[in-house]
Amino acid sequence: AAEWGGTDCYTNADYMSRIWSFLSSGPTGGWTSKSTPGETLFEGPFAVSSVSWHTCSSDVVNKLGPIVHEIGHMLGLSDLYGGANSVGVGNHDFMGSAWGFGAHTESPTSLSAYHKIRLGWLIPTVLDEGAGGRYEITPSETTAVAYKVTAGYPEGEYLLVENRQPVEFDAYIGPGGLAIWHVDENQPYNGAAGNPWEDGWPGNGVGIRTRLTLLQADERYHMERKFNQGDGKDYFRNRGPGGVRPTR
């Protein structure tokens, strides 16, 4: 797999000359056979992922992460890698990173609530003006539960709140907690995501200018600064009598 890097033992090909996992929409009308004129081999988009993972051993099967990432594209999901100045959502959604926390590519982190909603796997409870009260929020990896907060936001912009816990495909996320996503349907998927360490932020025009952003509880903007692909301190947790607080 080209994602592994290095040089192939059999052909001496470097990673830029080997098979990368990718999605292609395919030519219009499908792929046709050269040996049988007029025969259509298959139609529509396709995804490619290398069978082997390492560079020298064909018996090491490719990990699950790159495969499910490309399947996500087949289902209509977009990359969440971020723009030039960020890593996007990082390991908090396998469309942001197929490696997962701790580089456990055999067990990539699950999808975010946003992508589960897009696929029809989750219908969020909407909290609009006057929706006060006490709410129970069970782990989103095992239950289809999330809250959509629209109060105080313009059309197309809102917060999504889900409970991410270290179970099943989220097993390596760390202590877990509430993931609070800022969603702006009017922005591109991999737009700019600034941070307070930039000159003039946010008045420099690089505030939150991307479709999906995780509001990180430690307030360190690690993903916007390309320090890491996210970590367990990005989730909000109960810090005692005061309730949910930042995790600095």
From TrEMBL:
Annotated stretches, region: Disordered: 229-248
Lineage: superkingdom: Eukaryota
Name of protein: Peptidase M6-like domain-containing protein
